[in-house]
Write a structure and sequence with these properties.
214 residues; Rossmann fold; six-stranded mixed sheet; globular; phosphatase activity; His_PPase_superfam; His_Pase_superF_clade-1; PGM_Phosphatase; Phosphoglycerate mutase
């Protein structure tokens, strides 16, 4: 399973926490999407392309599906983590709030983000169950999944708990996970590969966002 983060948005550049806010790609993001689509079209054809239904992911996935000649299916379970009351806030400002300090001090994966946000366990259950279902449907086949920074971080953590994916998932980066459709055994093979962004400007801009503002 090839897991791709969406292209860049203006919020990634400004450090705004997007969460479930539905922003489109900016011009750099569209070019990044075209570059990752070109790379993936040169590899084995996927049986299907699955994507979060948020615009930034869906637009990236449409470019990939079109270039590979594969069917695209949108799935809400691949959407970004709900960031609660921090959605729309600048990252630096959010980190200074009493609400975030109280949340961060607990370090409990069951604790929901203030304002109706998801806990890490809720996020993990949602995205892991979705990928297991996709693996069951496509046993032995190559599949591409397009999602978001925080979601992909949790996916990679599940695949390899010893490897921290935090802030290592740049825009249109590729991570590869082998998932058994029979016993749901996960193996993380590749994390945050951006070799397709060869031009220095694109490599630098890919790191404009991180998990929190994904």
């Amino acid at each position: 399973m090839v897991v791709v983060r969406h292209g860049q948005t203006d919020c990634n550049i400004s450090g705004t926490i997007q969460g479930r806010l539905d922003h489109e790609l900016n011009e750099t993001g569209r070019q990044q999407a075209a570059m990752v689509a070109r790379r993936l079209s040169q590899e084995a054809k996927p049986a299907a392309v699955y994507s979060s239904d948020l615009k930034r992911a869906a637009e990236t996935a449409k470019a990939i599906a079109a270039s590979s000649g594969s069917k695209l299916e949108l799935n809400q379970k691949l959407t970004e983590r709900h960031m609660g009351l921090f959605q729309g806030m600048n990252e630096h400002d959010a980190l200074k709030t009493d609400a975030y300090k109280a949340y961060a001090s607990n370090n409990d994966r069951n604790e929901q983000l203030p304002g109706g946000g998801e806990s890490l366990d809720q996020l993990s259950e949602r995205c892991v169950s979705c990928l297991n279902a996709i693996a069951e449907k496509h046993k032995g086949e190559r599949v591409i999944v397009v999602s978001h920074g925080a979601t992909i971080e949790e996916i990679c953590r599940h695949a390899d708990p010893t490897s921290s994916a935090r802030r290592r998932i740049p825009n249109t980066s590729i991570s590869v996970i082998h998932i058994s459709g029979d016993n749901h055994h996960w193996i993380l093979e590749k994390l945050g590969d951006v070799a397709h962004l060869k031009e220095d400007g694109f490599l630098q801009s890919a790191f404009g966002g991180n998990g929190a503002s994904a």
